[in-house]
Design goal:
By secondary structure, the protein is of the alpha+beta class. It has two domains: 16-55 and 165-310 and 378-474, Outer membrane efflux proteins (OEP) (Up-down Bundle), CATH 1.20.1600; 63-99 and 105-153 and 327-361. The chain is 59% helix and 19% strand. The chain is built from nine helices and ten strands. It has helices at 2-17, 26-36, 38-55, 162-225, 231-266, 289-299, 301-324, 367-434, 440-474; strands at residues 23-25, 64-75, 86-99, 106-119, 123-125, 129-131, 136-150, 275-277, 327-340, 351-361. The chain is elongated, with a radius of gyration of 43 Å.
Length: 483
């Protein structure tokens, strides 16, 4: 997996480097950040940790091995010729057992071995005879299988699986939260990317303004040599060039700083001729506010996390109700035993053993379970009110955001008209200046105004698309919107 990710990163960088336009789109940049930034690796580890937290419950199904060697020495206090004076016992008990989640039953397979060394006094019949009683060693072996099956509480293994299943909801909630965190992170990265695109656009506008200012200076200088204009016009033209050059230097410095920031975030050097590419002036087609609200309420990750929590509480309540049931277990066991004075002959296993029993228990009152059920119901009510609260907040945010986008669309359309008017005004002022009817100051002011309108248009375009990013993030479509 690590090798695949590494090769994918190399491929992306290679394709970006070979791009004929030497540009990188926002979609490609965000994808590159997702592949290289440690934030996403950290989030992936958080999810894996949560999954392993769930997998811990799988150990409840593991086979458990139990071994118990023992030694016992017993001296009898009772006075009887048939009871051993003392018994020395040594042996071992071994068993394997496992819980089955599908049934809730417990299976145990056991082996027992005991070696008894007993000392019994001779049987004395007063005045008649003394009958010697043989003392010695006795070996006993046994194999047994026991199965305990729930008939009421935990029937079907509902309680046995409960911890694992409840943790599964937590895994899904963490997964959704991680996606939400990733989108919030990409929103910040996207904002930074658009800031970089805005700086490039501002730089383009200023360089164009500088080019026009230099042309104006050259034209004014030629006219001065022909005594067609005063020296003050040359000074005004030169001052205009210097002012624009100062603005260019400022925007270059800001762009280099932003370039370094974007390169660091993506861990890829953008200073090698690879420029961010994004159309700041394209208007998006959005659904109606009511349709967007319906989609938001249906797909919102924040709401989905609460829905997962609601389902978890419902599952937890079922578990509590299951615990409220009486406990009735059927125990069935069977096995074979054998014994002999001779160790070798003690393994015949010719004595069958069978047993069956029912175990019943039920707490009177069961106040703990009742309190748990009530608590779970109250928690569900609280989650529902939280969902209602968040729905209102999301709707308010979406209405606010879409209103801003709609109003900004009007502003951008107005900016386009202002640009056309500003260009026409500059042409008119230039014509009047060439006719000697006005001073150069009016031409410079008109060009500066045209530049300012273009800069405002670019700034409004950047603001519009930042809001558009927030719209996609709010609708939880930022990572798969293809922007």
């Amino acid at each position: 997996m690590k090798l695949f990710t590494f090769l994918l990163i190399i491929l992306i960088i290679f394709l970006l480097t070979l791009s004929s336009a030497h540009t990188i789109t926002l979609h490609d940049y965000l994808h590159l950040v997702q592949e290289t930034h440690p934030f996403f690796r950290k989030e992936a580890l958080s999810l894996e940790i949560e999954r392993q937290e769930q997998n811990k419950f799988l150990g409840d199904q593991d086979w458990i091995v139990r071994v118990q060697p023992f030694y016992a020495h017993v001296e009898n206090t009772a006075i009887s010729s048939l009871i051993p004076d003392k018994i020395d016992s040594v042996g071992i008990g071994a068993a394997v057992e496992r819980t089955f989640w599908k049934t809730g039953g417990l299976l145990s397979i056991a082996y027992d071995y005991t070696r008894s060394d007993q000392d019994i006094d001779d049987l004395v019949i007063p005045g008649i005879a003394t009958i010697p009683v043989e003392s010695g060693v006795f070996h006993e072996n046994g194999l047994s299988v026991t199965y305990s099956h729930p008939l009421l509480q935990n029937m079907g293994g509902a309680l046995s699986r409960l911890g694992y299943e409840l943790q599964g909801y937590s895994v899904r909630a963490v997964q959704v939260n991680i996606q939400e965190n990733q989108e919030l992170f990409l929103l910040e990265v996207g904002d930074s990317f658009i800031d970089g695109v805005l700086l490039i656009e501002q730089r383009r506008i200023l360089y164009k303004r500088l080019e026009l200012a230099k042309e104006e200076l050259e034209r004014t200088t030629r006219k001065r040599k022909q005594n067609l204009v005063d020296e003050v016009d040359v000074l005004r033209a030169r001052d205009s060039v210097l002012n624009v050059e100062q603005n260019v230097l400022g925007i270059e410095a800001r762009w280099k700083a932003k370039q370094a920031e974007l390169s660091t975030i993506a861990q890829f050097d953008l200073s090698k001729g690879l420029l961010p590419e994004y159309d700041l002036y394209e208007l998006a087609t959005l659904p109606s506010v009511d349709d967007a609200i319906d989609m938001l309420k249906q797909n919102s990750r924040v709401l989905n996390v609460l829905k997962i929590r609601m389902n978890q509480l419902e599952h937890e309540k079922k578990g509590v109700i299951e615990q409220e049931k009486p406990r009735l277990d059927l125990d069935i066991s069977g096995g074979l035993k054998s014994g002999d004075d001779n160790f070798t002959d003690s393994y015949s296993y010719d004595k069958p053993q069978f047993a069956a029993a029912l175990r019943f228990s039920y707490p009177l009152g069961n106040r703990t379970t009742h309190a748990e059920i009530l608590k779970t119901s109250l928690e569900k009510n609280r989650v529902q009110e939280d969902m209602n609260n968040i729905k209102l907040g999301l709707e308010a945010s979406l209405r606010n955001l879409m209103t801003q986008l709609k109003e900004l669309e009007k502003v951008l359309i107005l900016n386009r008209k202002q640009m056309l008017v500003a260009k026409d005004k500059t042409k008119a002022e230039q014509k009047r200046y060439n006719q000697g009817r006005i001073e150069l100051t009016f031409v410079i002011q008109s060009r500066d105004n045209e530049q300012n309108v273009q800069l405002i248009y670019a700034q409004n375009g950047a603001l519009y698309h930042k809001l558009l990013l927030r719209y996609h993030e709010l609708m939880d479509t930022l990572m798969d919107s293809g922007i």
